[in-house]
Amino acid sequence: MAQSNDILEHVERLENDQIDLKLAVSSLLAIVEQHQTYHETSQRDVETSLTEIHSIRADMREMQTEVWGLQTENRRILDILQNWNGEQQ
After folding, report:
1. Which letter does DSSP use for residue 89 in this model?
2. 70: phi > 0 → left, psi -120 to 50 → alpha, else beta; which?
3. What is the pLDDT of residues 26-39, one digit of tens each?
4. Residue 25: domain span
């Protein structure tokens, strides 16, 4: 009878340990799911940021080209004005 009680207590401890393990695994899975969701959100944010950066860089290149064109036009106008001024004197 004492041995039977020992076995029953051992089985009860094993069942309690199994419940504890199931709860621990469930908690870990919930944490992993939260981290996965956070990672996916972060990845989308990074991709969005990179797309915006590429767009801004393209806009900056376009503006730089326009500035170079304006500088060339300004030099051309300055040359014309200097030549015209020289002819007036």
Report:
1. -
2. alpha
3. 999 999 999 999 99
4. 1-84
pTM, entire model = 0.60
In a domain, 9, yes or no: yes
Total tally of structural domains belonging to the chain? 1
* Residue carrying the six token digits 């915006």: 52
Side chain identity at residue 27, one-letter code: S
How far apart, in Å, do the first and last CA atoms of the chain sit? Answer: 129
- The number of angstroms, rounded, from the C-alpha of 28 to the middle of its chain's C-alpha atoms is 25
Query: What percent of the residues of the chain are helix, what percent strand, and what percent coil, each to the nearest 5?
Result: 100, 0, 0
Q: Give ∠ CA 31-36-39 in degrees, rounded to 5.
A: 125
Whether the pLDDT of residue 4 is over 80: the answer is yes
Residue 66 CB partners (closer than 8 Å, separation 6+): none
Confidence at residue 80, expressed as pLDDT on a 0 to 100 scale: 92
